[in-house]
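Aim 2 progress update. The chain analyzed this quarter is reproduced below.
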Amino acid sequence: MTSELLVPLAAFGLSWISVIIIGLVAGAIAKAILPGNDPTGWVTSLILGVVGAFVGGWIANLLGFPSGSFFSPLVWLFAIIGCVIVLFIYGLVTKKRV
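Predicted structure tokens:
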């Protein structure tokens, strides 16, 4: 996995399992943060949460933040930020309020 898009996962030193767990929890938190009716099912929400955690890691890497562990507040903060961004974009693309 040498793709530049996968660099944030390695930069944070997290395994795929960790990213999935963080994504699931951060996705649920992001859905609670965003106002509006939730038109997505739980499977879609979980997938968007994992994608959001990945996006959050990518943003943290771009901004030059140091790596962290599973329990690092910085990792969780950027995962939640990434999830909010992904859920917002998903709502715009699908014309649904998330």
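Helices lie at 7-11, 16-33, 42-62, 73-94. The chain is about 65% helix and 0% strand. These observations will guide the mutagenesis experiments scheduled for the next reporting period.
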